[in-house]
């Protein structure tokens, strides 16, 4: 328990670093002109990667992408548009820098977001595929309507789906942190859950459950070095949903 | 969806390909897939394939790390190998099971094609991995494709699922050597945990040197070091018993 507490403290300190720095440093506000995807060029995708800071994405009822950012000196954001794909290239010099990136996207846009060092990712609405990787910090995804592959090495994942793509596999993994996923009540999927220290709490009844784990499992007293694996179906089964955490709990919540 | 429509979709994707070689490679791949004599795929497969092609187009020409380029090249090469020979690994089940297996393998080929398309999303590749996993039981090339994705995909979740798909086949020395190499090469602690679990589960004592190296290293996470020491001890005990 002491190790977990220490890890939590280190993670918290890492998370606070970019925000403390961005508050202390002189910052600049950047507003990019609206970016329009090429008409009829297919489903849109916005992708970006930052070292330190925060990425916030929301949908809006417009056909363009709006980008604004608060950056430390020497940081610039360059949009690179290829028909229906927009890459927001964050350019920075040597040394520490940080950025708070705010992106508004048309409904149905897919997202590929990466925080390479530390910070947070917040998505409020996404109708396409969502791919997120965050090395140190949490990931919060709300009102998703497609599929997602999410990894947070040191941080929690909190994802809430209004609708799921009934044919696409999904995955949520974290080394240190909890995985909290809310799925529509009627979601049909084959679940595969792996965890070391922690447990599983599920609102769904897992059909044909097998493995060494139990729903709402109490794993105290078991060897934490052995990975527990819990497999089962919900609502008759469907695409595979994969959950993994080494230090944390997997929560599966039944949404509306 | 008609074959003609699918061809149009593919052409649309190909127009976004980065270079002529890549375009030609994928066009050849699609042509050979179409020439395969196989049982009809499930009715919804064409629609899924079309949707995934659009998905791939949405992501084409970017987000391709060196690792992903390697994975895509390997996977595409493997697929061309499958289709080029039009001869999969022998199906050992009786006649009643062969049609179902052929169907499963055909689905796996399509999944592999999707995974090989440049810029396919991580969730598309996850779906491909789940289609390849059951086929891997009888198809050596599906196993090789999973190994390629486990080794080089840019998305950790894809790598982990692909590695787990190979778990039942670790009696193949080449696969075991490939996964053992990943223990040295893949710096992600969660991937290390997945691999350590596989080696212990399959009593892969030949992986011991790599596991001991990992146990001796200062890992990013104490659980990885602890788990590596536990895995090494467990495998040593099993080796000594035999």
Give a description of the structure.
The complex is a heterodimer of chains A (256) and B (242). Helices cover 9% and strands 57% of the residues of chain A. With 256 residues, chain A is mainly β. Chain A has an eight-stranded parallel beta barrel with strand order 8-9-11-13-18-14-12-10. In chain A, strand 5 and strand 6 form a beta hairpin. Mean pLDDT of chain A is 87; it is low at 213-221. By secondary structure, chain B is mainly α. Chain B is built from twelve helices and no strands. Chain B is globular and about 55 Å long. Mean pLDDT of chain B is 70; it is low at 32-50, 56-70 and 79-96. Chains A and B meet through strand 11, strand 13, strand 15 and strand 18 of A and helix 3, helix 6, helix 8, helix 10 and helix 12 of B.
What's the N-to-C terminus distance of chain A? 35 Å
Morphology of chain A? globular
Which ranges of chain A are low-confidence, i.e. pLDDT below 50, for 5 or more consecutive residues? 213-221
Tally of helical segments of chain B: 12
* Overall number of strands of chain A: 18
Q: Treating each run of at least 4 consecutive H or I residues as one helix, how many helices of chain A?
A: 1
Give the largest chain-chain interface (CB within 8 Å): A-B, 48 and 39 residues
Residues in β-strands, percent of chain A: over 45%
Structural class of chain B: mainly alpha
Main sheet characteristics of chain A:
8 strands, parallel, barrel
Q: Which class do the helix and strand fractions of chain A yield?
A: mainly beta
Spatial arrangement of strands, main beta sheet of chain A: 8-9-11-13-18-14-12-10
**Assembly category:** heterodimer
Radius of gyration of chain B (CA) equals 19 Å
Biggest beta sheet attributes of chain B: none
**Overall pLDDT metric of chain B:** 70
Task: Give the strand tally of chain B.
Answer: 0
Residues in helix, % of chain B: over 70%
Mean pLDDT of chain A, rounded to whole units? 87
Order of helices and strands of chain B: HHHHHHHHHHHH
Content of β-strand of chain B? under 5%
